[in-house]
Amino acid sequence: MNYFLNEEQEMIRDLTRKIADEKIVPVRAELDEKEEFPREIMKVLAQSDLFGLFIPEEYGGLGKGSLELAIAIEELSRACLGVATSYSANALGFLPILLNGSEEQKKKYLPDIAAGKKLVAFALTEASAGSDAAGVQTTAVKEGNEYVLNGTKQWITNGGEAEINTVVAMTNKSKGTRGASMFVVEHGTKGFTYGKKENKLGIRASSTRELVFDNCRIPEENLISKEGMGFIIAMKTLDIARNGVGAQGVGVAQGALDASLDFAMERRQFGQAISSFQAIQHMLADMATQIEAARALVYAVARHIDAGEKEISKVSAMAKLFASDVAMKVTVDAVQIMGGSGYMKDYPVEKMMRDAKILQIYEGTNQIQRNVIGQALIKEGAKKK
Amino acid sequence: MKIVVCIKQVPDSADVKINPETNTLIREGVPSIINPFDMHAIEAGLQIRDKTGGDVAALTMGPPQAEGALREALSLGVNEAVLLSDRAFAGADTWATAYALAGAVKKLGADIILCGKQAIDGDTAQVGPEIAEFLDIPHVAYVRKIEEVKEGYIRVQRLMDEGYDIVESSLPVLLTVVKELNVPRMPSLKGKMAAKKAEIKKMNRDDIGIGEADLGLKGSPTQVKNIFAPEIKADRKMFEGSAEEQVKALVAEMRNIKCL
In chain A, is it the N or the C terminus that has fewer CB atoms within a 10 Å radius of its CB? Predict the structure, then answer.
């Protein structure tokens, strides 16, 4: 379908697709099997300027928007969701600096991030703070001109690989969510170590680790915005990043459809290609229709965000919710179309099916997305009365 | 260090079609790419430049649409792109092509000239070494590793059937490279955006100062009569019996089909 992409957007899509086909597809099974972080691929993405897409030109980026980011994420996800997750989580990580950082912080961190020299991780989740983000136990206590961090962050994407971490910690527990603050913690800071590395069902090329803060002292200038702004910044960050999860869903679903369509046209049973059977055609038709609907929604939300609209929570939650459910359904159906072959590791769809599941879980479960959408609807309804 | 990389735009297809009337390639409708071996030459040029300083120029001889290949080279990071284009070049064989390219290289000046080992459409592997001959400079073909480059000196590994040779040369030198040499980089978005706007330097027959008699079809000793894939004959006959009997039967058969 024609999404009226401009020349630069097509250039971004073509280049990312070329990298995906030439550099990611040949190694994705091995990265998955070995649970290996794709450092070489990250270098290629850096060299191609893809880490600078969403960062303004004055900080060494390309100054593009959510749509360009979604296009790049979609193409990476078509090849390997593990790689795409590592790339997307980087954006999630730098958004707090980009959205609310001081001019000094932006100048200090964004150029290296745009150049792909430094990877970023976003650290909110803890053992007792998942869907209930207000359960954060990590504390930051101000001592002189430093903050002292104590606590453990869990399931942090890019954990251990990132040079820069944006970390939510409580500066005033009695204030609840209003007592949370956002900090930058750099790799190598004394008192900051990495804990358990997770062994995951899918997106195994991405790194998921604990971040452990034990009397970790950081300078006060590492506070982003003001004390108490931590949750507001985190929610603003997630509002933008969630559409990226939608783009991941579109990409992995498209990859699964492509693989199962190729297979269905080759595989012969009862003397004919299985693609000639209506049962298969109807599955393919549903998959393609759902993907197109998800893509249309993700691109529309991206344009909504890029247009500077204020209310983006609801629509980005919709894009994440819908596209991730499509990804799960389509990847399961792709395995079904390919039957025994689909279940084997010789073909990519079993991995895509394992990978897709995370999309319904991370950056807010799909149940939380429905909460976000539902609350927004009720707010809108109340305004009308 | 001044480096010139000679590149060729080729059709991106394994099944190249030939126009039976003119015996030339049908290029319409086939997407064009930079000859894959030339991608390794570009990468080598960029790596040498990044180590020693200087600049890299991509040079191609071709019709105006070959500009696409030059823009791609620019997006990879070459400093300058030169299109050698003139109606007088049409129909050039490897000799006339190399002669014209050598003329352009002479004008541009170069310490190192890099070429892919051959083009995937013509597969002759002649143009690189011919350019070196016309320039009267040394060349090393099938370079698989560049060990050292410094002012006036280069040491490389040349791929051989069994193993490799280490070859030292003075500069200027021409190298033709194999794919084992390096992994070509991906273009960058900034590079692609800049390449869109970059100026392509154009050179024609007058710029290189070569007479028409030495260019294009007129300057080409090769005249293509016909191009065809050799017919694969699967006919075979097995002879049995003692070696003596088999040889006798073979000789009789060869006489029979008039090849003895």
Answer: C
Residues of B at the A interface, defined by Cβ within 8 angstroms: 185-193
- Tell whether domain A231-380 is in CATH 1.20.140.10: yes
Is A210 one of the annotated active-site residues of the chain? no
User: Which chain A residues have a beta carbon less than 8 Å from that of B187?
Assistant: 15, 48
pLDDT for residue B15: 61
Residue contact A48–B188, C-beta within 8 A: yes
Q: Distance (Å) from the C-alpha of residue A47 to the closest C-alpha of chain B?
A: 6
Given an 8 Å threshold on Cβ–Cβ distance, is B186 in contact with A12?
Answer: no
Q: CATH assignment of A7-119, given 3.40.50.150, 1.10.540.10, 1.10.10.10, 2.30.130.40?
A: 1.10.540.10
- CB contacts, 8 Å: A44 with chain B: 186
- Say whether B186 and A62 touch across the interface (CB within 8 A): no
> In whole angstroms, what is the distance from residue A94 CA to residue A90 CA?
6
Annotated catalytic residue, options A126, A161, A210, A363: A363
**A5/chain B closest Cα distance in angstroms:** 16
Per-residue pLDDT of chain B (260 residues; tens, 9 = 90+): 999 999 999 888 666 677 777 777 776 777 889 999 999 999 999 999 999 999 999 999 999 999 999 999 999 999 999 999 998 888 888 888 999 999 999 999 999 999 999 988 878 889 999 999 999 999 999 999 999 999 999 999 999 998 999 999 999 999 999 999 999 999 999 999 999 999 999 999 899 888 888 888 888 888 778 777 777 777 788 888 999 999 999 999 989 888 88
The domain A121-228: what is its CATH number? Answer: 2.40.110.10
Chain A, residues 56-115, CB within 8 A of chain B, namely 62
Q: Token pair of A358, please?
A: 């995370």
pLDDT per residue over A278-336, tens digit each? 999 999 999 999 999 999 999 999 999 999 999 999 999 999 999 999 999 999 999 99
> Closest Cα partner for A158 from A24, A71, A38, A40?
A38
A7-119 and A121-228 share one fold: no
Architecture of the domain delimited by B2-214: 3-Layer(aba) Sandwich (3.40)
Residues of B in contact with A18 (CB under 8 A): 186
Residues of chain A under the 70 pLDDT cut? none
Q: What is the ipTM of this complex?
A: 0.85
- Is the preceding omega at residue A96 within 30 degrees of 0, hence cis? no
At B259 the pLDDT is 83
Segments making up each domain of chain A, as ranges: 7-119, 121-228, 231-380
* Cβ pairs bridging A and B (under 8 Å): 30
The domain ranges of chain B are: 2-214
- Say if strands B9-11 and B18-19 run parallel, antiparallel, or are unpaired: unpaired
Contacts of B33 in chain A (CB under 8 A): none
CA A293 from centre of chain: 20
The two three-digit tokens of residue B43, written as one number: 């990468």
Q: Which residues does chain B have within 8 Å of residue A50's beta carbon, measured at their own beta carbons? A: 189
Neighbours of A21 (CB within 10 A): 13
SS3 of A28, please? helix
For A329, the enclosing helix (H) or strand (E) is: helix A313-343
d(CA B72, CA B50) in angstroms, rounded, equals 19
